[in-house]
């Protein structure tokens, strides 16, 4: 029996959760799932320019795990580019450090620490907010994890 997966730390939920070829209906596409930890690993290394060791420390995993996550992510992303599949970012054993919110009234987007409760837009004071971490099934559980770890 394999050991349970360690929860990986993800800085912030992605703003976009799917990508597809233009001009093709979604119901005609095969979906490929990119897990949140794979997304974070490739973002840290390929987008932010971290080396594998820095990325592993940021996510709280080993360097070989980062390499495996990046390999998986690249293989999935290339399916979107070469075969025209739809890429869906979802799931995985992760905790977010920050959350991303969008006001559905004025369109203001802002980041907050995952442990903070924000009930209104800092720009227009509307309470009509889209919670990006909530789209991925995360919220107070991430806060409780941080409290247990003393962070």
SS elements, strand count = 8
CA-based shape? globular
Radius of gyration: 17 Å
Contiguous uncertain segments of 5+ residues: 140-151
Overall pLDDT confidence: 87
- Fill in the CATH topology of the largest domain: Arc Repressor Mutant, subunit A
CATH class of the largest domain: Mainly Alpha
Structural class: alpha/beta
Terminus-to-terminus distance: 31 Å
Q: Approximately what portion of the residues adopt beta-strand conformation?
A: 15-25%
What is the percent of helical residues?
A: 25-40%
Number of helices: 5
CATH architecture of the largest domain: Orthogonal Bundle
How many separate domains make up the residues?
2
Instruction: Sketch the topology as an H/E string, one letter per element.
Output: EEEHHHEEEEEHH
Widest sheet: strand order? Answer: 2-4-3
Largest pleated sheet: 3 strands, mixed
Task: Report what the structure shows.
With 151 residues, this protein is an alpha/beta fold. The chain has 2 domains: 86 residues, Arc Repressor Mutant, subunit A; 53 residues, Rubrerythrin, domain 2. It is 36% helix and 21% strand. The protein is built from 5 helices and 8 strands, in the order E-E-E-H-H-H-E-E-E-E-E-H-H. The chain has a 3-stranded mixed sheet with strand order 2-4-3. A 3-stranded antiparallel sheet has the order 7-6-8. A hairpin with a 5-residue loop joins strand 6 and strand 7. Helix 1 crosses helix 3. The longest helix is centred in the middle third of the chain and has 21 residues. The chain starts with 7 loop residues before the first strand and ends with a helix.
């Amino acid at each position: 029996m394999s050991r349970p997966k360690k929860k990986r730390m993800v800085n912030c939920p992605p703003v976009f959760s799917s990508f597809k070829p233009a001009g093709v209906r979604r119901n005609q596409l095969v979906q490929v799932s990119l897990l949140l930890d794979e997304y974070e690993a490739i973002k840290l290394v390929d987008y932010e320019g971290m080396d594998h060791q820095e990325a592993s420390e940021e996510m709280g995993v080993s360097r070989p795990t980062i390499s495996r996550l990046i390999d998986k992510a690249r293989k999935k992303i290339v399916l979107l580019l070469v075969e025209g599949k739809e890429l869906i970012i979802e799931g995985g054993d992760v905790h977010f450090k920050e959350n991303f919110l969008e006001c559905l009234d004025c369109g203001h987007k802002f980041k907050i620490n995952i442990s903070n409760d924000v009930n209104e837009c800092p720009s227009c004071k509307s309470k009509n907010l889209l919670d990006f971490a909530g789209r991925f099934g995360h919220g107070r559980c991430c806060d409780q994890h941080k409290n247990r770890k003393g962070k």
